[in-house]
């Protein structure tokens, strides 16, 4: 039981858990904004186009006898629009994060005897293409066994 609690403590103390929690909170707040956008701007526009009376979208709601509510295709379309907007923004955020991560990648620049610029790149796993430590014999990301210990790669920049 102590081992399980120690593992749980280690899991909670990782930065990834904190980052994930912040992401969930920001995502919930952003979802509220997108829901407001669809409920207050996009849905009224759909009602205007389809001739709705302000309370439902005409032609997009099928009444069900014996119930107060019917089958509401307008709400379904609204949920799809919400999802697409949130998915698009998340895609753009991940794309921007990856671009910043690539821009900040470890590149050591120096000059050789011919005064050519040399850039040293951190080693990457040939299987999953993730960055690994110099001298590693197994990838910490995909756990593949490397054919040889990882080494820095050198690139000569010609100007």
TrEMBL record:
Chief place of localization: membrane
UniProtKB keywords: Cell membrane, Ion channel, Ion transport, Membrane, Transmembrane, Transmembrane helix, Transport
Segments crossing the lipid bilayer: 20-38, 73-94
PROSITE patterns: MSCL (PS01327)
Subcellular location: Cell membrane
Cross-referenced SUPFAM superfamilies: Gated mechanosensitive channel
Membrane topology qualifier: Multi-pass membrane protein
Listed InterPro entries: Mechanosensitive_channel_CS, MS_channel, MSC/AndL, MscL_channel
NCBIfam families: mscL
Quaternary organization: Homopentamer.
Protein name, UniProt field: Large-conductance mechanosensitive channel
Organism of derivation: Adlercreutzia wanghongyangiae
Originating gene: mscL
């Amino acid at each position: 039981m102590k081992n399980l609690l120690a593992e749980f403590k280690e899991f909670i103390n990782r930065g990834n858990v904190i980052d994930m929690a912040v992401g969930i909170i920001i995502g919930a707040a952003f979802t509220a904004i997108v829901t407001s956008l669809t409920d207050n701007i996009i849905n009224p526009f759909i009602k205007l186009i389809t001739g709705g009376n302000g309370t439902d979208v005409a032609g997009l709601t099928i009444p069900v006898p014996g119930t107060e509510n019917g089958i509401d295709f307008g709400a379904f379309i609204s949920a799809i629009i919400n999802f697409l907007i949130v998915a698009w923004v998340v895609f753009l955020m991940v794309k921007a994060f990856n671009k910043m991560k690539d821009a900040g990648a470890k590149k050591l620049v120096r000059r050789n005897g011919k005064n050519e610029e040399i850039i040293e790149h951190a080693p990457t796993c040939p299987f999953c293409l993730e960055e690994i430590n110099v001298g590693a014999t197994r990838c910490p990301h995909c756990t593949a066994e490397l054919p040889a210990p990882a080494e820095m790669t050198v690139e000569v920049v010609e100007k």
